[in-house]
């Protein structure tokens, strides 16, 4: 069962403390980290490797202490594996933040979407390569909420509160659909 891959609460608490601290001034915060790890997991990369870790920390060392850095990397890799286990076993992935978006006030979901998009940008060509239209549709809520892409059409979507709420609530199902698109065995 996927429960065997669940991270202990104390590990998640320690990660959250580090990711939201000044010691992680170049990396993503806790919610952004979950979004990033989700994108890495469901996308074509599939695992948190050295290149993804370097991107996560913007090529900056996570700590002056090599042992602490290795521990944080191991915890992030375990967190990524726990996300994969949930999806692999067909469960709905729960985000570590409420599914509420606010165009006027960035919040935890905004941070999650920014992290997700950073993970997508790492392998953008591979994400869109064979499935450009599907990925464009499936990632639209994350693109809109992250507000990382300057496009007037996206701003129109951001201002439509009803549509934005509907898109926001779809995120967990879209995560599953993207995961299946890249990782479900083909029937060929």
What does this structure look like?
This protein has a single domain, classed as YgfB uncharacterised protein family PF03695 (Four Helix Bundle (Hemerythrin (Met), subunit A), Up-down Bundle). The chain has 188 residues and is mostly helical. The chain contains ten helices and no strands. It has helices at residues 9-19, 30-42, 50-56, 66-88, 108-122, 124-129, 132-138, 140-146, 152-159, 161-183. 64% of the residues lie in helices and 0% in strands. It is globular. 32% of the residues are buried.
**What is the CA-based Rg, rounded?**
16 Å
CATH topology: Four Helix Bundle (Hemerythrin (Met), subunit A)
Provide mean pLDDT, rounded.
90
State the end-to-end distance: 28 Å
Strand share of the residues?
under 5%
Provide the low-confidence segments as ranges. Answer: none
Oligomer: single chain
Number of individual domains: 1
| CATH homologous superfamily designation | YgfB uncharacterised protein family PF03695
Based on CA inertia axes, which overall geometry fits? globular
Q: Topology as H/E string?
A: HHHHHHHHHH
Instruction: Determine the fraction of residues in helical runs and give it as a percent range.
Output: 55-70%
Largest sheet: none
CATH architecture assignment:
Up-down Bundle
Broad CATH class: Mainly Alpha
Number of helices: 10
The beta-strand count equals 0
Structural class: mainly alpha
């Amino acid at each position: 069962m996927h429960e065997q891959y669940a991270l202990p609460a104390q590990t998640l608490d320690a990660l959250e403390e580090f990711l939201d601290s000044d010691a992680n001034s170049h990396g993503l915060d806790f919610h952004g980290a979950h979004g990033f790890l989700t994108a890495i997991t469901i996308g074509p990369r599939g695992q948190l490797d050295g290149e993804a870790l370097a991107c996560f920390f913007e090529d900056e060392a996570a700590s002056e202490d090599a042992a602490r850095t290795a521990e944080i990397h191991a915890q992030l890799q375990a967190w990524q594996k726990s996300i994969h286990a949930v999806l692999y076993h067909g469960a709905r992935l729960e985000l570590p933040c409420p599914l509420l978006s606010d165009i006027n006030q960035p919040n935890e979901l905004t941070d999650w979407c920014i992290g997700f998009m950073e993970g997508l940008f790492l392998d953008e060509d591979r994400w869109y390569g064979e499935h450009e239209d599907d990925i464009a549709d499936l990632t639209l809520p994350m693109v809109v909420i992250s507000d990382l892409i300057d496009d007037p059409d996206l701003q129109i979507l951001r201002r439509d509160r009803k549509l934005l709420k509907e898109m926001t609530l779809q995120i967990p199902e879209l995560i599953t659909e993207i995961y299946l698109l890249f990782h479900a065995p083909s029937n060929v």
